[in-house]
Structure formats: structure tokens, C-alpha cells
Amino acid sequence: MIWDGSRWVFEYVSGTIHSPSAMDYIVTGIPRSGTSLVSVILSSSSNSVCFNEIHYDVPTLPAFFTGMRERIHAGQSVVMTLEKDGTYTTDTIRGGEVKKGKVLIEEKQHDLRLG
Fold this sequence. Notes:
Order of helices and strands: EEHEHEEE
Number of helices: 2
């Protein structure tokens, strides 16, 4: 999986099938309903990381979660929507005040839940 600056690009591996995991969840809602805040709260848990407006290709969500879990456990960076100071944003509508940036997810347990 490669971040091209705007989206995750999957490398096709013949015969690879990714199934949904009981450790994965999706937070969804209408704009301005608090889903970004919920994502930040979930990410503050010791065993959860909730990506904020990063991946919308629903059929590839199982592969996305698998790839992200592998990256986190390998100590590689992942992309999140952040404030200018690098903290997770609770408001993604503000345009130029937020950005997508690479961060390292540290101090999370091995049974990591992803959203």
C-alpha cells in the first residue's frame, strides 16, 4: 500500500483475499455531526486507532485495515487528518487549517482495533 498524496493505492497481489475482521469498525455520519470528534476519542484508547477521512473505497476496506495494521505493527507511518500543529483534528471542514500528514502510532497493544 502506497500513499500517493491524496489516497492509498493498493498493489494487487494475485489470489490475496482480505476478509473483514471483528477488530475493525466504521464510524459514519452526516457532515458536522461529530464523527471526527468520535474518531479522536476512539484513537485515544490504548487499543484503537480511528483514521479520519482517509479511505472511502468500501470494497477495499478489509485490505486497507489489514495493510494499516501491518504498517502500525512494523513501526511505519500512517496518514491521518491533522491540525497544523500535528495533533489529530476534530473538525475536518476548516479547509486550509487541517492537512493530511504521516504519523507514527506508538504504544498501542497488539490486539489493535482499527476504524
